[in-house]
Amino acid sequence: MTFRRLALATVAAAAFAAPALAADTVKLGYQLPLTGDTAQYGQDFRKAAEIALDEFNAAGKPFKVEIVFEDSRSDAKEGTNIARKFVDDKAIVGVLGDFTSGVSMASAQVYKEAGLAQLSQTASHPDYTKISKYQFRNIATQAQEGPYNAQWMASKGYKNVAVIAEQTDWGQSVVSGYSEAVKAGGGTVAFSEFFNRGLKDYRSLISKIERAKPDAIYTGFFYEDGAQFLKQLQQLGVKTPVYSTSAAYSPKLIELAGDAAEGVRLTSNFLPTDPAPNVQHFVTEWKKRSADAVPGQFPAQAYDAVRIMLAAVEKAQPNPTREKVRDALAQTTDFPGVTGKTTFNAEREPVKELVKVEVKGGAFVPVAE
């Protein structure tokens, strides 16, 4: 299903009256899961994108932007079909998404051949941006997070570790990025295993981890699986410290896991408590549209991704083309986002700073070490 969002009623009325876009309207595509098992993430991305789009279109620019949202259902085949649809629409000069690395990478093959810039807010598999010069991301990769967390854990004296992750391309990058760094630092991976996303019973996996007697557990999961795993750790009386990637950073982790989340440590590049004006502006706007709920890292990533793309479209004016938008994206330097400043290096990777976070007193709080 296609969701079209136009900023002004007059533009919307014109769209119904005639199939062509107004000459001063630029079109973008956004593929994301709006239904299916990961729909909650796609719905958050769409909401964040709408906030960014509304702000841009209300800023008195000499042109407006329309975003076409398409539901990929986190399915690689559907994502590829959407990519073909976007490519065939010559009015679309840039695309955002998808959510998972697997779907993003499958779609990237289409965008590569067509020469259409793709900016994913969450595809963190190291190979994603290697596909072509048209792939960008504004999230830290597991090639960055893995070594960062391995060093953090080693500084705490955790030299013998267990690592688990979901059985996906992204999960494999979590395990490899972290495990290689542990071994390079003189540590030992005592246990490593993958699990299926949506697993309800982790007791067998937890028993295996216990038998390995690790100093700490490193995990690659999203908040739903994370909450389930943490609750069962608590039920089984396991006290081994747990670390995770930024993928688990969401208020929903604490909401679902309750006090079982206490003490979990992970990385992030967004804190809703950050007093910076742009962060507090986004948090306020998000709460207005989310029944006062606080945003997690992924909505913040989407908000920044859309704003980075909009800035590239503006830089490519007048008469932005697909190639001009791609080149403008590549020139992104110190973009002031809510997830920190973003600069794309020569490989179109974001230069980002990570923050260490711990769950204390039922909330995420930054830690110094």
From TrEMBL:
Q: Where is the signal peptide?
A: 1-22
Cite the Leucine-binding protein domain residue spans from the record. 25-361
Gene3D superfamilies from the xrefs?
Answer: 3.40.50.2300
Which CDD domains does the entry link to?
A: PBP1_ABC_HAAT-like (cd06349)
Pfam families given for it? Peripla_BP_6 (PF13458)
Query: One GO BP annotation here?
Result: amino acid transport
Q: Taxonomically, which superkingdom?
A: Bacteria
Q: Which UniProt keywords apply?
A: Amino-acid transport, Signal, Transport
The similarity annotation says:
Belongs to the leucine-binding protein family.
The protein depicted here goes by the name: Amino acid ABC transporter substrate-binding protein
Q: Give the organism, scientific name.
A: Azospirillum doebereinerae
From the broadest rank down, the organism's phylogenetic lineage runs: Bacteria, Pseudomonadati, Pseudomonadota, Alphaproteobacteria, Rhodospirillales
